[in-house]
């Protein structure tokens, strides 16, 4: 069995040697492929460096412009806030003035209505009362004239007949 074990070990060593040779070949192929890739990439490196530098410059300029835009935007917002505060003050002032004017107009309207009512009452008392008195006097004169026109003898008899008709 020692012999067979030695043969088995030799076979395994031989298989390991073949595997190592295959690995060495693959490693050499990878090395060659890497060399070819390096040869292809080497001309691109200066272009990539220029692109990186250009990108850095562009990024730096963009940062400056963004900062300027931010400052300007902040200034515009501050100015807008101030203007809105002024507009708000003007609106509050106008609202307060309008309320005062509306109160004044209401007072003037109330006063005018009261004076108109007083004037109507005065006219009613001044004109209507004498007219009623004149109407009363004219009714009395009419009654007197009717009495005189009918004659004096009809008085009590006629009155009795009138009373009977009433009852």
Summarize the structure in words.
- By secondary structure, the protein is an all-alpha fold.
- The protein has one domain.
- It is built from 3 helices and no strands.
- The longest helix has 107 residues.
- The radius of gyration is 63 Å and the shape is rod-shaped.
- The chain starts with a helix and ends with a helix.
- The mean pLDDT is 87.
Outline:
The chain has 167 residues and is mainly alpha-helical. It contains 3 helices and no strands.
List keywords for this structure.
167 residues; mainly alpha; 95% helix
- First and last CA, distance: 171 Å
Indicate the proportion of strand residues: under 5%
Order of helices and strands: HHH
Helix content: over 70%
The figure for the number of domains is 1
What is the average of the pLDDT values?
Answer: 87
Low-confidence stretches: none
Overall outline:
rod-shaped
Reported for the largest beta sheet, the result is: none
Computed Rg: 63 Å
Give the strand tally. 0
Q: Count of DSSP helices?
A: 3
Global structural class: mainly alpha
Oligomeric state: single chain
């Amino acid at each position: 069995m020692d012999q067979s074990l030695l043969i088995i070990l030799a076979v395994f060593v031989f298989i390991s040697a073949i595997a190592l040779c295959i690995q060495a070949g693959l490693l050499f192929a990878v090395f060659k492929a890497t060399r070819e890739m390096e040869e292809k990439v080497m001309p691109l490196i200066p272009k990539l460096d220029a692109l990186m530098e250009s990108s850095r410059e562009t990024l730096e300029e963009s940062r400056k412009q963004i900062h300027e835009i931010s400052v300007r935007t902040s200034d515009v917002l501050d100015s807008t806030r101030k203007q809105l505060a002024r507009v708000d003050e003007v609106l509050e002032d106008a609202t307060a003035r309008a309320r005062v004017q509306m109160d004044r107009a209401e007072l003037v309207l109330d006063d005018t209505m009261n004076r108109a009512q007083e004037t109507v009452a005065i006219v009613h008392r001044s004109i209507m009362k004498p007219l009623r008195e004149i109407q009363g006097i004219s009714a009395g004169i009419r009654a007197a004239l009717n009495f005189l026109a009918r004659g004096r003898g009809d008085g009590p008899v006629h009155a009795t007949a009138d009373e009977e008709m009433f009852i």
